Each structure stands twice: as structure tokens, then as C-alpha cells.
What we know:
mainly alpha, about 80% helix, 6 helices
Amino acid sequence: MNFGASGVMLYIFTSENLRQYAVLGAMGATSRQLVRMLFVQAGMCALLGTGMGLDLCCLAGRIFGAVDHPFRMMWFTPIFGMAIVTLVSLVAALPSGRPVLKLSPAVVFAGR
């Protein structure tokens, strides 16, 4: 579920901002730089999402601990969680790279 939602949201964001990518392309950015920007964005979102998720887990652990409900997070959980979320985000960014690679600034600015 997370994989599909991440992919669709990133694809929609990329589609809505094709005009900005065209401007960057017209200013001299290569396709490789544009795709790298897309993957850096996906990676940063993955890291921010992982950080927020881990914060919520720590908060839940403190709340559960205060009411004597058992809560245990193993040492490897944050590491594996971060790796999987980053992998899912970067793989979800793959379909978003195609419109950026096929982008022609002249077509975008012509209003078609």
C-alpha cells in the first residue's frame, strides 16, 4: 500500500511541476541533473518520513510505558525501517523520471 501511494503521489507531483523542470532544462540543466534532483527529493522525503515515524514510535513507547503496557523496540528496527522506506521511495521515484527525461522545454512553453 505504501509503495503504491508513494509512487502515485510522487508521479502527480512531478507531472504538476513539469513546467518548472522545463525551465531548469531551458536554463541548461541536463536530464541527468533533473533526474538526480527527483531522486534526492524522494530520498529526503523518505528520511523525513522515517524520522517522523520513529519519533511517533518513541512517543508511543513512553505513553505505553507510563500506563504499564509493554512496548519494546529492538535495536535493528529503526535501521531496517529506514532502509526499507528509502528503498520503497527511490523505487517509487522510477516512474516519475520518465516524464522528466522526455521533457522538451519548447513543447511545455508552447502551451500544449
